[in-house]
Structures are given as structure tokens and as C-alpha cells.
Design a protein that fits this description.
Elements (H helix, E strand, L loop, with lengths): L4 E3 L17 H11 L8 E2 L6 H4 L5 H9 L4 H7 L5 H24 L1 E4 L20 H11 L6 E5 L6 H8 L11 H4 L12 E4 L5 E8 L12 E5 L5 H18 L5 E4 L17 H17 L4 E4 L8 H19 L1
Parallel strand pairs: 1-2, 1-3, 3-9, 4-6, 4-8, 6-7, 8-9
Antiparallel strand pairs: 5-7
Helix pairs in contact: 1-11, 5-6, 9-10, 10-11
The structure holds zinc ion (ZN).
Length: about 325
């Protein structure tokens, strides 16, 4: 029995046909966790779909109406990069419900992982990059509305920048200031690269957003997060972990969150088809451990979602996501 809960439903599956996004990964992760004895059936909680009222805490009524009535324009559907269907709408509402449940549950257990979600490219008025609804933002706003939390921090380690997250929470800022440049200059330049990574950021508001991502990758336009770490192509485990450690320290010096939302994308992996970084499976597990250790040391509850993962071999993606549960088990036991 795990010392925390996992949130999962077979209905997390995204009905998108043959697609680079391996929609079957959620079930495969679930089955791997059971088959390897990492988890047992009693460790899982079954989520309920978010309500339209929950979704409207983040998304514009016109957009929600279009999704509910199947009236997206061809251009809007193309931008989302997944084929619209009523069933797909249901899957995204369920992902948001799963993130709400995970966020609520981690407040009592210290950590909770939803074997899904992390749709960080969804904006209030449109979807893009395989993301229709921003489940993590919905969870944060719902817990704030319920007075369960006041503040939250997102730590987005997907290889793609969390543009939706940055845009959604930018509106809450009241002031901005540059980070001390010393925080970036103290880091070594990544080995074998001519262009050092770069950390930039501004913040004031109730949700602090951190994104570590490959600079030369989607999205082309990256709205500013509280801290953005723009990583050069091909960065490996050690440099990545140094940047992550630095960004977490810097963020937690500036901000005290009641909840940490970790977006644990599997796509910084060296064999990812949509990523250009060079992390190993072992390095990605260390990444998870680092986030969990920092959160545990400061007694900040962590909710985890899975976001992207497009390894040539889908089994690698499943291994990386399964390791996130193992890392949590090791840190939180
Ligand atoms: Zn991604």
C-alpha cells in the first residue's frame, strides 16, 4: 500500500485516433504499477468529472459553450491539434476533475499523483498543442474558491513551455521585477554547448509559475512565467538538475505556496520525438525526486500531473511516468 493516493480512471483515455500523443499511456501506466507491485488497486481513487462551473473558473463562457455544443471553427480545432468529439470533451472534463481531486487529496497526504492531466497549453479562450482544458489551473482555482488554499506554485518540467499556465496566471500579477542576474550567472554553462541556458522571470500574484523547457521548441511565442528557464538544445541530466534546483530555490525564496503543482512531462527524454533535450530515464527520476524532496523539506503539499511524453518506444514513456510514482514512494515513505 502506498503512503499516498493515485488518481486514475480508464476514461482518462483520449479518443484521438492514431496520433503522436499516446492516449493509451494512462492505462499502460496503471497496469504497469499494478503488475510490478508498486501500487495495488486500493491505492487508486476514481475521479468525477469537473462541473461546468469549475471549468468556468478558468475558461471563457464562449469557449466552453463552443466545446459543449460542438461549434469550434475549423481553425480552432486545427490549433488544438486533436480531433474534436463530445467524448473528447468528456475526457478533458474528467482530467480536470482528477486534478481537483489530486490537489485536494495532497493537502492531507503530502503528495497525490493523477495518472493523467497536465494540459498546460490550454488558454482561457482556446485550446492548442493537444490541450483543450487547463486541468491544473481549474484545480487551483477550485481549491482557492473552496478556501482550501490561498496560493499555489506550478513547477512545469515538460519539455515545452507552459504557455497556457503563464497566460492564465499572468492576469493576477500586480507588479514585476527582474530576478537578480546572479541567480543565472552562478550556474555553469551546460557542457558541450555554446549557448548557456537562461533564467528570466517576474512575479507578483497568488500563483507563481515556473517553467523549465527547451528554448527552441513549441510554443514559438512564450508568454512570461514567473520564472522561465530557457534551456539550450541537447542539455543532459546534470545541467538540467542544476537549473531545476536553482529555479526551485529562487522561486521558493520569493514565494510561499500552499500547494505545489508539479507538471511531470516525460518529453525531456533523449529519445522523445517532440523534444530536443537529452535526459536519461534515470535523470528524469532524479528530477522527480528533487521536486519531491524540496516540497517535503518545506512541507508543501504536491499534486502531480503527467503532461507530454512522445518517446519512440511508448514503453519508455510508461517507464518514466511509472518512475514518478516510485520516486514519490521513496521520498514520502
Ligand atoms: Zn510537452
Amino acid at each position: 500500500m502506498l503512503p499516498f493516493k493515485l488518481v486514475y480512471s480508464d476514461a482518462y483515455f483520449l479518443p484521438i485516433g492514431t496520433h503522436v500523443f499516446p492516449a493509451e499511456k494512462y492505462k499502460r501506466i496503471h497496469d504497469r504499477l499494478i503488475a510490478t507491485g508498486v501500487a495495488e488497486p486500493a491505492d487508486f481513487l476514481e475521479p468525477q468529472p469537473a462541473t461546468d462551473q469549475d471549468i468556468l473558473l478558468v475558461h471563457k463562457p464562449e469557449y466552453v459553450q463552443k466545446l459543449r455544443t460542438g461549434t469550434l471553427s475549423a481553425r480552432e480545432e486545427m490549433e488544438m491539434e486533436i480531433p474534436y468529439s463530445r467524448e473528447l470533451v468528456d475526457a478533458f472534463w474528467l482530467a480536470a476533475g482528477g486534478s481537483i481531486l489530486a490537489a485536494r487529496q495532497c493537502l492531507t497526504d503530502g503528495v497525490c499523483i493523477s495518472i493523467g492531466g497536465g494540459f498546460h497549453h490550454a488558454f482561457p479562450d482556446h485550446g492548442e498543442g493537444f490541450c483543450m482544458i487547463h486541468d491544473v489551473a481549474v484545480a487551483i482555482r477550485r481549491l482557492q474558491r473552496d478556501d482550501k488554499i490561498r496560493t499555489a506554485m506550478t513547477v512545469d518540467c515538460d519539455v515545452h513551455q507552459g504557455n497556457g499556465t503563464a497566460a492564465i496566471f499572468a492576469g493576477t500579477r500586480t507588479a514585476s521585477a527582474l530576478l537578480p542576474s546572479a541567480s543565472a550567472s552562478t550556474l555553469p554553462h551546460p557542457a558541450g554547448t555554446t549557448r548557456p541556458g537562461k533564467m528570466r522571470g517576474t512575479h507578483a500574484g497568488d500563483v507563481f509559475t515556473i517553467s523549465l523547457h527547451q528554448h527552441n521548441n513549441y510554443p514559438l511565442f512564450k508568454p512570461p512565467s514567473s520564472i522561465d528557464v530557457d534551456l539550450p538544445d541537447g542539455i543532459g541530466d546534470d545541467d538540467y538538475l542544476a537549473w531545476l534546483d536553482n529555479a526551485l530555490s529562487s522561486g521558493l525564496r520569493q514565494f510561499e505556496p500552499d500547494l505545489l503543482c508539479y507538471v511531470a512531462g516525460a518529453d525531456p527524454y533523449v529519445e522523445d520525438q517532440l523534444g530536443g533535450l537529452s535526459l536519461t530515464i534515470a535523470g528524469l527520476k532524479k528530477r522527480d525526486e528533487l521536486v519531491f524532496r524540496v516540497a517535503r523539506a518545506r512541507a508543501i503539499p504536491v499534486m502531480v500531473t503527467y503532461a507530454g511524453g512522445y518517446a519512440q518506444n511508448v514503453e519508455d514513456t510508461v517507464t518514466i511516468h511509472t518512475n514518478t510514482v516510485i520516486a514519490a514512494k521513496e521520498v514520502f515513505t
